[in-house]
């Protein structure tokens, strides 16, 4: 066989054809479908009909929508009737609303595509409670179900596989969170406090004014002109030696260091309480040193030998729930917010740790009393020898008397 015949066979042509890109118009169509339906994230969501969201008001904001939910279920007759009808508590309803709000688009409140299972896990309730909470949102016009969750069609299944590369057989419902105008008017946002400059800025401005005054004022040491700028004699007033200036500065440094060394450290239980409080409520974490939290606890009159950080966090959470509120996700001034919250509570009563310790002591006393009672009953019971002696005595008493011969 010649060289031309062996290298002009059909095998290289087949390999060349296999290396060419395949014509896949159906994949391009699926990609266009994903682009038209604005698919994003790790799951494929059901498309919403165009114009369906036009008649639904968007929410004001996440915090504003949560205020509206809280106001509707606690202050309005329709809201109280809705939570009563669907057998759901205020705390559970707020947790469900918070889970929906965290899944919604931050600007519009739409595109809530989380599954009921994920919402239940995020809110800490069961799936049936999430479904009842959705009925309350729908009844109060705070949420609208745009598309009911269902099994994907064959084309949607293929589009989902093109979108995220996995197999998805079902898609969750698509919800839109809304702010009714009457609730928006009833729950206006609280006024924001006037922004003040930081302490660093104030100190910087004060130092700048002092330097400006010293520069523009009269020269207190006119004889220092023309001297060597590195000479200490030019910096000291007339009549005071350089040695005296250096000695005074050294004494000032010693006094400053000795006074700082005499500063007593904060008690260990106070530091532990502040650390545990910040760990249980991260929104209270200060931007600087945690010692500022210790100072707030001291100013609030909390005895950290009785109140642990977890006890303080639980008391704040109980006060939040009793007022129908929620812990904020972030605050502008954590220390100011903590001071305000602590001043609203009475810390003179027993702490949860003390109550648990007292209950444990009572339980131990009850167990000891039961053990002592069982021991007394055991000791009061007759021994086998004592029972045999009594039985012999009874038999002798009941036996007929013997007649004399």
Automatic annotation (TrEMBL):
Q: Mark out the compositionally biased spans (Basic residues).
A: 192-212
The UniProt regions of compositional bias labelled Polar residues, in chain numbering, are: 8-19, 213-222
| Source domain of life | Bacteria
Basic and acidic residues compositional bias: what residue ranges?
A: 368-395
Region of interest: Disordered = 1-22, 182-236, 356-405
Name of the protein described by the UniProt record:
Replication protein
């Amino acid at each position: 066989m010649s060289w031309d015949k062996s290298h002009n066979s059909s095998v290289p042509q087949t390999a060349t054809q296999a290396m060419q890109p395949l014509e896949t118009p159906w994949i391009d169509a699926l990609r266009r479908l994903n682009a038209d339906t604005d698919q994003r994230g790790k799951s494929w969501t059901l498309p919403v009909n165009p114009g369906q969201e036009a008649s639904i008001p968007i929410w004001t904001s996440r915090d504003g929508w949560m205020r509206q939910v809280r106001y509707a279920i606690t202050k309005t007759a329709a809201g109280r009737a809705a939570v009563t009808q669907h057998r759901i508590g205020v705390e559970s309803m707020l947790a469900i609303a918070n889970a929906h709000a965290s899944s919604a688009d931050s600007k519009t409140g739409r595109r809530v595509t989380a599954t009921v299972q994920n919402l239940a896990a995020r809110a800490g309730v069961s799936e049936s409670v999430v479904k009842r909470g959705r009925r309350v949102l729908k009844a109060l016009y705070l949420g609208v179900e745009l598309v009911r969750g269902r099994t994907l069609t064959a084309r949607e299944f293929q589009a989902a596989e093109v979108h995220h590369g996995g197999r998805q057989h079902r898609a969750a419902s698509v919800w839109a969170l809304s702010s009714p105008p009457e609730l928006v008017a009833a729950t206006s946002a609280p006024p924001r406090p006037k922004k003040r400059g930081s302490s660093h800025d104030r100190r910087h401005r004060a130092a700048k004014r002092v330097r400006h005054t010293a520069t523009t004022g009269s020269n207190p040491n006119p004889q220092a002109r023309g001297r060597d700028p590195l000479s200490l004699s030019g910096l000291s007033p007339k009549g005071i030696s350089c040695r005296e200036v250096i000695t005074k500065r050294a004494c000032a440094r010693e006094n400053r260091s000795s006074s700082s060394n005499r500063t007593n450290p904060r008690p260990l239980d106070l530091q532990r309480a502040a650390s545990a409080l910040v760990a249980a409520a991260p929104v209270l974490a200060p931007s600087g040193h945690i010692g500022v939290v210790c100072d707030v606890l001291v100013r609030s009159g909390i005895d950290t030998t009785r109140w642990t950080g977890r006890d303080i966090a639980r008391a704040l959470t109980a006060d939040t729930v009793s007022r129908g509120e929620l812990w904020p996700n972030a605050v502008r001034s954590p220390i100011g917010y903590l001071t305000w919250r602590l001043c609203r509570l009475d810390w003179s009563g027993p702490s949860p740790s003390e109550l648990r310790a007292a209950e444990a002591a009572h339980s131990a006393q009850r167990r000891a009393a039961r053990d002592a009672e069982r021991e007394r009953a055991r000791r009061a019971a007759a021994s086998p020898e004592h029972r045999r002696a009594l039985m012999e005595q009874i038999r002798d008493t009941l036996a007929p008397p013997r007649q004399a011969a």
